[in-house]
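@channel anyone free to eyeball this complex?
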Amino acid sequence: MTSTIKDVAKRARVAIGTVSRVINDHPDVDPALRERVEKAIRELQYRPNARARRFVQNASPVLSFILSNRSVLSPFHSAILQGVEEYCAETGYFVMFTQYDYSPDTPPSDLRLPGVLQSHGIADCLILAGTNYENFITAVEELGVHYVALSNHLVTSTPRAPFDQVGWDDDAGPYEATRYLITLGHKHIWYIGDTSLHWYKLRYSAYERAMTECGLETLGQTVGLADNYYANGYACTEMILDHGYPMTAIFAAYDEIAFGAWDALRKHNLEVPRDISLVGYGDDDAAQFKMPGLTTLRVEKARVGRELARMAIEKIRRPDNRIPQIIVPVSLIKRGTTRPVSVTISSS
Amino acid sequence: MTSTIKDVAKRARVAIGTVSRVINDHPDVDPALRERVEKAIRELQYRPNARARRFVQNASPVLSFILSNRSVLSPFHSAILQGVEEYCAETGYFVMFTQYDYSPDTPPSDLRLPGVLQSHGIADCLILAGTNYENFITAVEELGVHYVALSNHLVTSTPRAPFDQVGWDDDAGPYEATRYLITLGHKHIWYIGDTSLHWYKLRYSAYERAMTECGLETLGQTVGLADNYYANGYACTEMILDHGYPMTAIFAAYDEIAFGAWDALRKHNLEVPRDISLVGYGDDDAAQFKMPGLTTLRVEKARVGRELARMAIEKIRRPDNRIPQIIVPVSLIKRGTTRPVSVTISSS
DNA sequence: GGCCTTTCATGAAATGTTTCACAGCCAAAA
DNA sequence: TTTTGGCTGTGAAACATTTCATGAAAGGCC
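replying in thread with the prediction:
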């Protein structure tokens, strides 16, 4: 069968404690002995038994990435997960991927919790991604399980204290994007994005602030007209065009919405950016590859993932330490879908 | 601290063996005792220690999903991963997500293996997804670690025996799609897709067979003109149009390629499907939401994931049993981007 | 009542590792 | 020479659970 530390010790004619010290890179081992032990390890093809090690240390280098209430693992969350894995691989941790759907209305004690919480000792810290609500957080806390959360998609009745969370800036980015469009001379800038979700409302508020500050009228299509991003962008844009509302630019609250809007514009023989400027949000891969590339707000998802992992591991090391929230900045990526309003430029 | 099985036994005034039987739903426990034990468990908020359990059983209900040689977790692989997780959650297993990049040219013994293979006992079976080569498979086999693999993206010099793999049909689908376009009266059907990857070559061969069988000329743009799907579809389509080659339909080897082609067509004032019919491959979410919806070949990725998980678990149960390969069928989804060739229909 | 069978609780053994108190050895200091 | 102190190797204890041989109690049959 597979060899154990005992076999190695016997073959190297040392005590198991010595073998353990060699494996774990402890100092205070005679070089000659270390050599002998390493030779024995090679010869026996010994690999440490992770199960025994975890058991005796009462710790597992495992983070559980929980994707809550999302039927699809979107490019956005995929990239976050990849960031988490990347950091974990660098630091010797492992990532467990779990999907978990629940209703915000179930009392914490009635929640059918994901398997990772039913036993204890499977993962040492949770990363709560996806959309989460108070009841699940409460249940996790009652179990005394460590966790860190993605702050942007956290839906709570009262604002949470800014600890043990990682997020990105849902205000500064949209504000900057709107200002940018205004700078380009646009006045009829439409916001498209269902604001029933509070992170879209934040983006809308930033847009609204920028518009109001410049004395411009807010033009928001904040009610969803379809149940997916693309179709919603498409339908909202068609609706605006059909009504003949003035419009020279669109700020879409998500890249996929922008793509829908774009196709609707093309359908109406409007060209981007010649006729309409278009700004998205997220900078998914597709945004940079489009012809022309989509001007959008880049959220560094991999960075968000890395920070989540880093925070989770820090949490394991010092469980009682509340770690201040980390906000990953969002940057405006100017590509080919935005340009100055022709009339404004030529008449000025 | 957290309570152990011993605490429960003491409180319920039974032996630990009895508590163990209650926890693990063994029969042969007196109902009265079972009740008493369950009460004690509730009162102490006892949760079994997964680490101790795994240690003593020398088994972990964990599968490791390895995404090899992919810088992005594409919607395609995301959906497979979700299928894996879904099945695992149903059967009490957990999924570890690992990314692993390696060169096909490194000898097996020189590979810097992912952490999950450095110890033993972290995961009981691997699911090899992404693009994999012989050297890594060999290394895994030499370690004696169980695995199942996604067959479509397996690149080996000699064909692998059809065991312990799950895949989808890369031939029948493309063949059917091409036949469908031919049935619609199309004669100038272009294949777009870089065939340097062998799974694209399979799709091309099926297209070629269908065309040849009907006495039609194969029109393949099989050399990549850009380094991502969308841009490649865009560039290839522009190239075809710029040369003035006759074309009434495009079969794109992947949905994203189709989207690029579509945008290039629009750029040239060609409308889909009025002027050009378009068929994709994959049926990513975006395909169904487009206006009009993209006619494409649906690969049931969640199903692929579920079968991979099922096979992996079966592999753990009976390690020496070679499990015949599973091929998940691919189906043609007819949406709005395909229609009969006008001229052909009217003149016949 | 005596004997046999069935049912079910008991508690010790076993699992592979880390940890730690202790001991042995050697060099330097007294 | 003896004592002290610093290294470094040793091996038993501890970890929480499952498993299993053992045995007690209960029930059935003559």
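from a first look: Chain A is about 45% helix and 15% strand.
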